[in-house]
Amino acid sequence: MNLPPLQPGRASEIINRFKGVPILVVGDVMLDRFIVGRVTRISPEAPVPVVRFESEHLRLGGAANVANNIAALGGQVSLVGVVGADAAATRLREQLTAAGVGVEGLVEDRHRPTTEKVRIVTERNQQVARIDYERDEDVGGDLARVIVARVKRLGSGVKTMLVSDYLKGTVTRPVVEALVSSAKASAERAAVPVIVDPKIPHLAYYAGATLITPNHHEAETATHRRLRTDDDARDAARDFRARAQCDAVLITRGEHGMWLSDAASEGKIPAVSREVSDVTGAGDTVVATLALALAAGATMAEAAILANHAAGIVVGKFGPATVTPSELLDNLKSTINLKSEI
Fold it and tell me: pLDDT for 179-225, tens place per residue?
């Protein structure tokens, strides 16, 4: 069963409320570095291509890309994460500041490098190799306490809290518990939605979250089910909700769209037709859009539909990418018009 479409008027109403909405992102920040070159021959030293350097580009990755997506859509975002005491951390802060993302929540750990992924690609965007600089053990001790303190301080007054978990050490049980606890309703304010972009080894950490967004493979792993049909997706989503002890689940299924399961609505969101250039960071765009839409008063179904359109846009771009409010609204309108002409 497909969820009802989101009409342009209602979509415009929600998107127009994105501007200035305060959001907190907590998770594993990364720097993506792309070294672009031309391949014309194979090395005489080993059977590998020789890449002649042409250019180098920096992109925000992981939780930093989530925050960047929120800022690009007009939100006011604070970011809590861990960086090293190195040049990559300096570049990461510069990129975040330029994007309008608050960096006071970044915590320095002198015993680990800033997570950095260096991709060597051709001028046709074909990846030749990747080098990862990282240490992925969980933070602990004083560092963990500092992260929890910053979550509590920066989470005060936000409209949505978001966990971006890449298993790089920032997202621990105490951190998530502090975030969920801060988000609960008090006498002064209503409960704040907590969205989690998960990794299955941490599934038990996420109890109490509002919405968790596993991809197809993560949902299969967590529920021990194969997802081939919409019925499979429905059953897996229900099972996932029970196992994770969360309110809602949105399974992202690539070309098969998404499946939403919560107390108010359940159904499929068909994929938005688009030529795929690169799926890197699409999940970051999904959770960023969900966070802003829920903060702007969208229902869970409306937020999921907007996130689906945002994902359809970024997969047509290379590397971790962002979406603007006008791109999002134009994409939704054009998709509805195309369907009406068929």
Answer: 999 888 654 567 899 999 999 999 999 999 999 999 999 999 999 99
Residue-wise DSSP of 137-178 = SPP-HHHHHHHHHHHHHHTTT-SEEEEE--SSSS--HHHHHH
Residue 24 sits at φ, ψ, to 5 deg, of: -110, 130
Q: Which residues of the chain have pLDDT under 70?
A: 185-189, 273-281, 318-319, 336-342
- Among the listed residues 109, 165, 197, 284, the single catalytic one is 284
Using only C-alpha atoms, what is the Rg of the chain? 20
Residue 238, number of CB atoms within 10 A of its CB: 14
Domains of the chain: 8-30+62-112+136-341 (3.40.1190.20)
Q: Does the annotation mark 239 as catalytic?
A: no
| Secondary structure element (H or E) that encloses residue 179, with its range | helix 173-183
Tell me the C-alpha distance between 228 and 156, whole Å. 42
3-state helix, strand and coil shares in percent for the chain, rounded to the nearest 5: 40, 25, 35
Average pLDDT, the chain: 91
